[in-house]
Write the structure tokens for this entry.
Amino acid sequence: MWFLSWPTFALVHGLNPLFTNYQYYPDGVNLMWNTSVLLAGLVLSPITWLGGPVLSYNVLATASLALSAWSAFMLLRRFVSSQLAAGAGALLYGFSPYMTAHSLAHPNLTAAFIPPLVLLLLDDIVRVQGRVLAVALFSDTWIRPTTSSIGVNSGDPQQFMWFLSWPTFALVHGLNPLFTNYQYYPDGVNLMWNTSVLLAGLVLSPITWLGGPVLSYNVLATASLALSAWSAFMLLRRFVSSQLAAGAGALLYGFSPYMTAHSLAHPNLTAAFIPPLVLLLLDDIVRVQGRRPAVAGVLLGLAGAAQLLIGEELLVTTAIVVVLLVCLAIALRPDQVRPRIKRTLVGLGCAAVVFVVLAAGPILFQLFGPRRVQGVVHPLNVYVSDALSFVVPTRLILLAPDSVVAVSDKFAGGVVLVEVNSYVGVPLILLLVFIAVRYWRRLV
């Protein structure tokens, strides 16, 4: 418990987290020769601040077994077709006699979720999937990741760097993470009305402390594309038997013109890995038999609350897509909807309860707290999609000829490349039309 409290205490007070003389004073202790779980202490620092080191220890001891089993399951599912066999292997790994014995006192030995993930990442590197592509896309920045940032120097990346630093600073100093008067002093800013990526700031706080906000921003900008492609792949694999087809769809989702444009300045819009997971969980609730709808509902509520604290725009967009899909399901397959109503209501009810518990506070603060936004923030005809922008590429498209770029530069916001991001392309539109016509009578 002491070890879990030390890293954050040391960094806040300008001390070396690898050494302490708060034990064995005055000689001190080299913590690298101890089971000091430094990274766990940093990651769990919000829980330590809010609930104390006993709660953090209990979370670490419990989560270590669960995460170890989960990571083993993810690894085994990559190579084993049977979910039952993968689940059995995962339980054997995560809850073996070795793990249950050490769970009584040694979380440094039961936090064994990284070895399976390392093997997964090695397999990904061999397959050259989206995570490698995301790093390659921003390779120039990753040569100097603490001093140069991804994207354009428009002011938005710098604002996000500040946002990433704020939540932990606020909690350490007993301030409200949803409000600050460190900007626009003395009136301050209601951060729920801003793209403040609060949850990302908390998750990346160890990186911010160790490497600075520039590094954290680069990690967020890069990981957003990679994670979005990964979650899209997981969703598509549920419905597509071909790994190649699922991979192509995942790359289209994670590295589309929309994503590459916004990746230059708007990580709140490119951290789009939760929407596919939401659709996966909804599928678990509505369609997949043998899954507990209540469990999927709880996870769905957690996903919604997480998305709220990363980017509200994507949360609203996801909700609109879900409503449209539900309407289509009711219209096209009413006979299959009726038997699933009870199951669906259980799952969605659990999701609603979890979401309200976690999200009610931030939403109420946004709507009724200080410095809430009223009226029109931006002119109505600035951040819009020109009718031609869906088929006319911008400078960000590698093969766009100068004559075409001259047209896209005149779109609303065209001089700021990150604001023109609705390009779909004639080939993809024709493909969608062909699929719609060819498979018009096929419901699935």
Summary: The chain has three domains: 1-121, 125-376, 377-443.
